[in-house]
């Protein structure tokens, strides 16, 4: 599978779970030891990811556009994307997202997630 296809598959699964406001399913897209840095203090592991997305308002959506990908190792990819988080009651929040995805068995999961405001 090509790098772009792999990263798209991972981010599509993340987006689907975010759009459905399903924090547990969002967390399943991350490795068990993932480093997660949203716009609040960082956490390590799936519990922190689930708590972060559980605290987000219902109706929040994520639309992304992949900007760059790099292969760091055979089973590790780096990706950079522009993401627009949409809300029902406030303006869209545009951010930059950098992720490191890693093959874990037969799946690719997010091992590092870093968001920064534009």
Automatic annotation (TrEMBL):
InterPro entries: DUF4440, NTF2-like_dom_sf, Steroid_delta5-4_isomerase
Pfam family for this entry, one: DUF4440
Record SUPFAM superfamilies: NTF2-like
Domain DUF4440: start-end pairs: 8-110
Gene3D superfamilies with a match to the protein in the record: 3.10.450.50
Domain of life per record: Bacteria
Listed name of the protein: DUF4440 domain-containing protein
Organism of derivation: Amycolatopsis rifamycinica
Source taxonomy: Bacteria, Bacillati, Actinomycetota, Actinomycetes, Pseudonocardiales
